[in-house]
Design a protein that fits this description.
The chain has ten helices and 20 strands. The chain is an alpha/beta fold and 347 residues long. The strands form five sheets. Strands 3, 7, 8, 11, 12, 19 and 20 form a seven-stranded mixed beta sheet that branches. It binds zinc ion.
Length: 347
């Protein structure tokens, strides 16, 4: 079937490729409807690698997807043909030690869509374990369903933060993940979220949400803004969502004594770490790798209307124009948050 294939670094093709379509007893087959373009997909396109994951053979891109169940395996009871669903892109070994601990996201054996050598799902059909396929509530569109994956990272970050109602949070970086983190922090009980960036356009998108306050780093420092907002006490939770090594300079000075620093962004190189700054405030440090056990909760929040991800979808392309979608994503327009590709024939 036709798929969007990354042939090698910098070369995309919409072409036929053989993808396994055997439906195992615990699997479902899904007709893909909508797929979001993720920063990681774009990075494989432009760099051919992310850290230790190196593209060595043609790979289908895409891991943020929603669609419709068209076939179910003989053991599957939770889903039926015709169900609208979204999918968790990582498939762990369910008998692994990590999975048994509930930490299936850090199972070393996890196979994650569009992470070499595993194919993604920018294709008309995929086969996936029912255990990692989630029914969309009627009020949640396919477009929103395809936003659950990036939002899940925010959900994981908010969960790891152990937010207490009324907490003041600070998010470094107003990219797609920073905004997802801010929205999840608000949904998780934060009274207000300050978010910093150098881009006025990105900040404007974030601050359009009630409860999110923009801090433009071209005008002030995040430390000064947090100081003013908390009368010198510091933020209860600071989320690092920029992945910039520079963000770690003075990071712990943003956290109130006894507060938490949650590391979400992935710096390319090792960064200098102010151990004394962290220790002197007994900052609790948490890390976030993808997500585990949050898709159901994310869908509940979206269905309830408490979280509205629709304003973040800033462009939609037909499947035949997938390469144009990726080339626009490479441009990294500050006004773009999420581009999506409609794989299904009709909207
Ligand atoms: Zn993603």
């Amino acid at each position: 079937m036709q798929a969007l294939v990354l042939e090698e670094k910098g070369v995309l093709a919409l072409r036929d490729i053989d993808l396994p379509q055997t439906v195992g007893p615990d699997d479902v087959k899904i007709a893909i409807h909508t797929v979001g373009v993720c920063g990681s997909d774009v990075h494989y396109y432009t760099h051919g690698a992310i850290g230790p994951y190196v593209l060595r053979a043609p790979m289908v891109l895409g891991h943020e997807a929603a669609g419709t169940v068209v076939e179910v395996g003989k053991n599957v009871r939770s889903l039926a043909v015709g169900d609208r669903v979204c999918m968790e892109p990582g498939i762990p070994d369910l008998s692994s030690r990590a999975s048994k601990l509930g930490l299936y996201n850090v199972d070393p054996a996890v196979r994650f869509w569009a992470t070499p050598p595993v194919h993604g799902i920018l294709a008309p059909y995929t086969v996936h374990p029912a255990a990692f396929t989630y029914r969309l509530p009627d009020s949640v569109s396919f477009a929103e369903g395809a936003m659950v994956e990036p939002f899940a990272i925010g959900m994981q970050a908010a969960t790891r933060a152990r937010i207490v109602p009324g907490d003041v949070a600070a998010v470094i970086g107003a990219g797609p993940i920073g905004i997802m983190v801010a929205l999840a922090a608000l949904a998780g009980g934060c009274s207000r979220v300050l978010i910093s960036d150098f881009s006025a356009e990105k900040l404007a998108i974030a601050a359009a949400y009630p409860g999110i306050e923009a801090v433009n780093l071209k005008e002030t420092t995040f430390a000064a803004a947090i100081d003013t907002a908390t009368r010198g006490w510091g933020a209860d939770v600071v989320f690092e969502a920029s992945g910039s090594g520079k963000a770690f300079e003075g990071l712990f000075n943003l956290v109130r004594p006894g507060g938490a620093a949650v590391l979400v962004g992935l710096p390319v190189d090792p960064v200098r770490f102010d151990v004394a700054g962290a220790i002197s405030r007994e900052v609790r440090i948490e890390t976030v790798f993808r997500y585990a056990n949050v898709f159901d909760r994310a869908l509940e929040l979206i269905a309830s209307g408490k979280v509205d991800l629709k304003p973040l979808i800033t462009g939609t392309y037909a499947f035949k124009d997938s390469i144009a979608a990726f080339d626009r994503a490479v441009e990294a327009r500050p006004t773009d948050v999420k581009l999506q590709i409609l794989v299904a024939e009709e909207g």
